[in-house]
TrEMBL record:
Species annotation: Actinoallomurus bryophytorum
Domain HTH tetR-type: 13-73
DNA-binding region(s) in UniProt: 36-55
GO molecular function terms listed in the Swiss-Prot or TrEMBL record: DNA-binding transcription factor activity; transcription cis-regulatory region binding
Keywords, alphabetical: DNA-binding
Protein name: TetR family transcriptional regulator
Family matches, as Pfam families: TetR_C_24, TetR_N
Record-linked InterPro entries: Homeodomain-like_sf, HTH-type_TetR-like_transc_reg, HTH_TetR, KstR2_TetR_C, Tet_transcr_reg_TetR-rel_C_sf
Superkingdom per UniProt: Bacteria
């Protein structure tokens, strides 16, 4: 690749990154429906036509932002070992890590929730992302059942869905809706989770 091509590619990557930053700001401030491509370009400091060099439409730039956000959440989740110092300690670490990661992206997560109610593509992304969380928690609960730590009459899938939803909706009410909470409330979530599965 020649020097000119390298410079052109670097410039294109900078423009794309600027558009993504600008889009995130606009989506977080205005929501999806009221966001305009012209404002995204203004925030990014690029010409209007440059947007279409990188993205087909508003949906495409939003989808990329959501993919990036979800990769971050999944990285946090996957960094949490499935085994270690016992189920309660693992659940506590996972809950705290998830809540920290959610808080960092709460404004974009709120827009994601909004768009998933009317966009079939975003709804599918939303359900797929939650499916990963459900699967991981289901595997953990099954493993604890095999070790004799969780009663056999608890259905691992139902428990995983219910308890992941409890943590997710709590995060939404705290960080999106602004419900006051204290550090001890996180401990309470872990206690509720553990008691629900008989730990």
């Amino acid at each position: 690749m020649c020097v000119t091509e390298v410079k052109r590619q670097a410039r294109a990557e900078r423009t794309r990154a600027s558009l993504l930053r600008g889009a995130r700001e606009v989506f977080e401030e205005r929501g999806f429906l009221d966001a305009k491509i012209s404002e995204i370009c203004d925030r990014a400091g690029v010409a209007y036509g440059s947007f279409y060099t990188h993205f087909a439409d508003k949906d495409a730039v939003f989808a990329e932002l959501i993919d990036e956000m979800l990769r971050g959440l999944l990285t946090v989740m996957r960094a949490e070992a499935l085994n270690g110092d016992g189920p309660e300690a693992r659940i506590a670490r996972a809950n705290r890590a998830y809540l920290r990661a959610y808080e960092k992206s709460a404004r974009l997560m709120a827009v994601f929730e909004q768009v998933a109610t009317f966009s079939p593509a975003m709804r599918e992304t939303y359900l797929r992302a939650w499916g990963v969380f459900y699967d991981r928690q289901e595997r953990a609960i099954r493993g604890w059942q095999e070790a004799g730590l969780v009663p056999a009459d608890i259905d691992p899938r139902t428990a995983a869905v219910a308890l992941a939803t409890m943590i997710g909706r709590t995060a939404y009410t705290w960080f999106v809706l602004g419900r006051p909470h204290e550090d001890g409330d996180v401990d309470q979530l872990t206690r509720l989770y553990c008691r629900a599965i008989g730990i």
